[in-house]
């Protein structure tokens, strides 16, 4: 499983759209607060691999490309553990 | 915008994986409770159009194919308004 503290350190750019508290700043972006960690990892991997297009993929694909598996696990832990 | 009551009536099959309270029954499925309605519609449309693959798309694509734009708006209203 990921490390939420490490995830928080990596989440600065994510917060731009998904909000500092994991509640998205605009309704077209998903809230991430309390979301299931494996689902978040699965989504990031689908963006990174190009399997997930549509929606805001134009923003998410380049972001996901910068993330390692460990980064994804840490970010997923951070957001899923958010209260 | 969608009609949450109409969405509830259409959500029986969704609850199978996403839970009766919008909290997914397994960690690979996303929670939908309180999620942004436009994001939910965008996701359903991406599944329906085949733009969103990967993850659990094998389950979601056939589901999304059965939904009209009105169904999607109603379901999105239902889940986004869930407290």
Shape designation of chain A: globular
Helix tally of chain A equals 5
Number of strands of chain A: 0
Report the end-to-end length of chain A measured between terminal Cα atoms. 18 Å
**Fourth-level CATH superfamily of chain A:** Cytochrome c-like domain
Mean pLDDT across all residues of chain A, rounded?
97
Largest interface: A-B, 24 and 24 residues
Largest sheet properties of chain A: none
Residue runs with pLDDT of under 50 for 5 or more positions of chain A: none
Q: Compute the gyration radius of chain A: what is it? A: 11 Å
Assembly type of the shown chains? homodimer
Structural class of chain A: mainly alpha
What is the helix/strand order of chain A? HHHHH
Provide the CATH top-level class of chain A: Mainly Alpha
CATH topology of chain A, anyone?
Answer: Cytochrome Bc1 Complex, Chain D, domain 2
Q: Structurally, how many domains make up the residues of chain A?
A: 1
Q: How does CATH name the architecture of chain A?
A: Orthogonal Bundle
Structural notes for this entry:
The structure is a homodimer. With about 80 residues, chain A is mainly α. Chain A has one domain: Cytochrome c-like domain (Cytochrome Bc1 Complex, Chain D, domain 2, Orthogonal Bundle). Chain A has five helices and no strands. In chain A, helix 3 (about 35-50) packs across helix 4 and helix 3 packs antiparallel against helix 5. The interface of A and B includes residues 27, 37 and 42 of A.
């Amino acid at each position: 499983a990921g490390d939420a503290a490490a995830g928080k350190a990596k989440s600065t750019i994510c917060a731009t759209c998904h909000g500092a508290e994991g509640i998205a700043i605009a309704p077209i972006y998903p809230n991430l607060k309390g979301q299931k960690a494996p689902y978040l990892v699965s989504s990031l991997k689908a963006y990174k691999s190009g399997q997930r297009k549509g929606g805001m993929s134009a923003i998410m694909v380049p972001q996901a490309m910068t993330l390692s598996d460990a980064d994804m696990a840490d970010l997923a832990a951070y957001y899923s553990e958010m209260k």
